[in-house]
Amino acid sequence: MKYICSVAINAPIEKVVALWKDEASFEKWQDGFQSIQHFEGQPDAIGAKSKIIFQQGKRKLELIETILSNNLPEEKKALYEHIHMINTQTTKFEKINENQTRYISEVVYTKFNGIMPKLMAKLFPGMFKKQSQKWMDQFKKFTEETE
């Protein structure tokens, strides 16, 4: 399963990228974000690994992120592994003009483990894209409201 989301943000590319990379602000635009813990390699360097924890209702969601490439603002690609699924996400930022930036996210799910995740992906693929777009829209709002 593959999808692409994008949003135009009314802010210069330098500001957008700096805020997007700022782990201290993740909780302000990613619902349920709890923590990120780097445990291998230099943060943001190719091969670096981190554990990311989200709280979704009563459920805790743990992801292992591995950086595959990172030359922002052009592109950052990471592998995300979860007990129920594996995906890659490629994030790009494009300068529209001096005060506008396009934020693009391409997500490719490569594996679903278990009956329920496979059914959800098959029956409700839009649910995954909807969540990605929601976080991107929240990031847009956060960025445009941040001085």
UniProtKB/TrEMBL annotation:
Domain of life the protein comes from: Bacteria
Gene3D superfamilies assigned to the protein according to its UniProt record, in alphabetical order: 3.30.530.20
Stored SUPFAM superfamilies: Bet v1-like
Protein name from the UniProt record: SRPBCC family protein
Organism encoding this protein: Kordia aestuariivivens
Taxonomic lineage: Bacteria, Pseudomonadati, Bacteroidota, Flavobacteriia, Flavobacteriales
